[in-house]
Target: Cytokinin riboside 5'-monophosphate phosphoribohydrolase
Amino acid sequence: MAEANVRSVCIFCGSRSGVRAEYRDAATKLGAALARRGLTLVYGGASVGLMGAVADAVLAGGGKAVGVLPHFMDAKELGHPRLTEMHRVDSMHARKALMAERADAFIALPGGFGTLDELFEIVTWAQLGLHRKPMGLLDVDGFFQPLLALVQRMVEAGFVPETQAMPFAVSPSPDALLDRLLAGPTMPVTSKWLKDGQQT
Model:
């Protein structure tokens, strides 16, 4: 597999820290790994929760962190004050588009509805052939196993091609996950619009 040209990684994760210390610890370790490898962080720009933890770790390691924050969040004082770059945009849609544009790969950590929204939009764009960037899940304490089971259920029900049953690289280890993403795309190229009964 050809090595991907990855210089920046977009991180999707919670604006809360969650109830387990392992979540924040994983975010910190991932941020440190990004800085150590010279990979720029692209993320939602907040200073709180796992988002703040990964950015703090990148900056502490001498790395670069690029935030993208909607204007309405300024009033909530959620923006990280020490980022290498902060881009303010007009909407959540513009936020996701700019993060995707600036990133060469994507990783999701534990999070809530916003994290899943960002993750599945990127997966959908890959399915539609709009990008070939690698995508990964940092599977802290098995957090994403129910999600992977749901994807398998969608495959079994005939709504997702079998060739796309595992669109992500998955690992509990930040370094192992980054190694896989640097190796190249994670979702095979196939047609989403297949006739009933047609094989991919």
